[in-house]
Amino acid sequence: MKLVIANWKNNPKILAQAKRIFLSVKKRAGQLKNVEIVICPPFLYLPELSISRSRLKLGGQDCSWEGSIPLTGEVTPSMLKSFGAEYVILGHSERRRYFQETDAVINRKIKSALKTGLKVIFCVGEDPRNQIKKGLKGIRGGVMPQVAIVYEPLSAISTQKGSLVVPAELRQKKTLIQNALKQMFSRTVSQKIKIIYGGSVDEKNIKTLLKETEMDGFLIGQASLSSSRFLKIVQFCNRNRRTT
Ligand code: PGA
């Protein structure tokens, strides 16, 4: 089953708009049984959206780690969980780039999120092998099926033109990521980990991506802010149930 994740980032501007998008996706989602849909809104919208989530799953776009020290401004994994989030995105390249998140910080967040029982959508980009090694350091193979790896190169994000990494390159990156995971965990464990692509995925390029890349799912930014565009992507994924 494909995993399709909407990353709304710092959008939409007001709650009423967020509810509108969410409810129109929800309306159709009930009929799409071959796809897992996760909506990751800004933290502030989670309480309201969690009331009516039904088949749609919710996720945070980041979180801190649990701990006894005060962390001004942070949202912990257990807070996310208490508002119905099942997932959290960690290591997104915008967090690495604009908030200077290091691999060590991401690793700490991943461990804490997993311990709390959240599923982790772990993003890697420019140097996937190294980011995987450092980000997943010290994590037991047993919990790894709760982690999905997103390959999302910075240059492919929000390009406006809908251009994307060529399928051949994506296939190659998928193999590289699988090999890195095999080296860290067992073969059996690595086969259970979903490998996803993100970066300007839209309703036009999704067909090619599905046909030519064998990715286990997609992380959608811009195109997820329009319910009709997002639903088209989800519908294509629902029809194509190949892979895990
Ligand atoms: P995009 O964003 O689809 O707008 O490129 C994807 C992401 O950054 O998660």
Task: Fill in the keyword field for this structure.
eight-stranded parallel barrel; alpha/beta; TIM Barrel; binds 2-phosphoglycolic acid; 244 residues
Structural class by SSE content: alpha/beta
Alpha-carbon distance between the two ends: 6 Å
Report the major sheet. Answer: 8 strands, parallel, barrel
Can you tell me the residue ranges where pLDDT is under 50 for at least 5 consecutive residues?
A: none
Looking at CATH, the homologous superfamily is Aldolase class I
> How large a portion of the residues is in β-strands, by DSSP E?
15-25%
CATH topology heading:
TIM Barrel
| Average pLDDT | 93
User: Approximately how much helix is present in the residues?
Assistant: 40-55%
- Say how many strands there are: 8
Number of domains: 1
Tell me the strand order in the biggest sheet. 1-2-3-4-5-6-7-8
What sequence of helices (H) and strands (E) makes up the elements? EHEHEHEHHEHEHHEHEH
Q: What is the architecture at the second tier of CATH?
A: Alpha-Beta Barrel
Question: CATH class, please?
Answer: Alpha Beta
Bound molecules: 2-phosphoglycolic acid
Count of alpha/pi helices:
10
3D shape:
globular
The quaternary state of the protein chains shown equals: single chain
